[in-house]
Write a structure and sequence with these properties.
This protein is an all-alpha fold. It has 13 helices and 3 strands, in the order αααβββαααααααααα. About 70% of the residues lie in helices and about 5% in strands. Helix 3 crosses helix 5 and helix 11 packs antiparallel against helix 12 (about 300-325). It has a 3-stranded antiparallel sheet with strand order 1-2-3, with helices on one face.
């Protein structure tokens, strides 16, 4: 049931994560054991989901999306507020973060909608598909959780691109983003003053973006994470300082060293070469997922596998960009490496669905036909 090249690369990332998490948390060995448990659960999920035909996944699209929207609404009114953010809801049996489920629910419903309408061939179809995308993004922004909202928005836009979004729209979006970054670099000192409010963003979100332009403006506050992380990455050199020998990691200068900033400690101890190997593995996993999607038996499976493959790549890019000072600090873990169960389970579900498409592709190439 499992695609061998994809499985091998994921197992290699799992192995790297064991070294990285142990180094970052060996003073709290229970955390390492919990990480091993989470990896085992992730493997079981991948193997189980790989056995589900992708045609059956279409039937889950609508109920899964509706249930997740209801959970997001319930979080809005009944969720637990921690540090000013309402992102978790306690259902009695389990405490969960519905926005993580939406990372799977959204590609499911959008891929189903595109296939149901034989593509997006009218303005009404585009508007309805955009509504499916922006409704959860709006609800997640209200929590507030800007990082997760951006990731979900990117996954939806990727699916729309695969579904036939026109190139002029893509080029316009890229030019608009480049223009925003250029203006921010030019007028950063002016717009980052305390007296200037940024519409749609909270003060701490504005501070993270402004700190990215000049971390030394607040070295012991908002800029501390970035400064310590970049110092650790740079001190690793070509081959690194050696496992368990990273000073920034072992002396706990790196904040959140086993979760969001686990790449900093890994880069310090294994250097540029070790980091390059991990990045190449992420590229290989993404390309293999895209290759699987190209041979998918249905349009739904093709869109789903392609979008979920790029979701993993987006996670990795955002996290590595964050810890190297290229992107603002957001709560995005490094796929399959960072300690933590929620994101690991979400990524594993996505990978299991890709394996399901790979299984169906294998069955199709052996001469069997699929019934829609």
């Amino acid at each position: 049931s499992l695609d061998r090249p994809l499985s091998l690369m994921i197992l290699m990332v799992f192995t790297i994560s064991c070294f990285a998490v142990y180094s970052a948390s060996h003073d709290d060995i229970q955390k390492f054991y919990q990480h091993l448990r989470n990896l085992f659960i992730a493997l079981v999920l991948i193997m189980l989901l790989a056995k589900i035909p992708s045609v059956f996944l279409e039937k889950l699209a609508i109920p899964t999306y509706i249930a997740t929207i209801l959970l997001l609404l319930a979080t809005e009114f009944f969720g637990e507020t921690v540090n000013g953010a309402t992102r978790w809801i306690n259902l009695g049996i389990v405490k969960m973060q519905p926005s993580e489920i939406m990372k799977i629910s959204l590609p499911l419903i959008m891929a189903w909608f595109v296939q149901k309408n034989d593509g997006l061939n009218s303005k009404s179809n585009w508007l309805l598909c955009a509504l499916l995308l922006f409704l959860p993004v709006f609800l997640i922004l209200r929590q507030p959780d800007l990082g997760t909202a951006i990731l979900i928005l990117i996954s939806g836009l990727v699916l729309l691109f695969f579904a036939g979004m026109k190139w002029n729209v893509v080029i316009f979006g890229v030019l608009a983003l480049c223009t925003f970054i250029t203006l921010l670099l030019i007028f950063g000192d002016s717009v980052c003053k305390d007296s200037v409010n940024w519409p749609g963003l909270r003060e701490y979100q504005k501070l993270r973006i402004c700190t990215l332009l000049d971390p030394m403006s607040d070295p012991l506050g908002a800029g501390f994470h970035t400064i310590q992380s970049v110092t650790a990455v740079g001190s690793g050199g070509i081959i690194g300082k050696g496992w368990l020998l990273g000073t920034q990691t072992q002396l706990a200068f790196i904040p959140e060293r086993s979760t969001d900033f686990v790449f900093s400690g890994y880069a310090e101890e294994f250097g540029f070469l070790g980091s390059l190997i991990l990045i190449l593995l992420y590229c290989g996993i993404t390309l293999r997922g895209l290759w699987i999607s190209l041979g998918a038996p249905t349009h739904f499976a093709r869109l789903l596998a392609g979008t979920l493959s790029l979701m993993t790549f987006t996670y990795a890019c955002v996290n590595i960009g964050m810890v190297t000072g290229l992107l603002p600090v957001v709560g995005v873990p490094l796929p399959w490496v960072s300690y933590g169960g929620t994101a690991l389970i979400t990524l594993s579900v996505g990978t299991g669905l890709i394996m399901s498409v790979a299984r169906d592709r294998s069955v199709t190439t052996q001469g069997f036909s699929f019934q829609q």
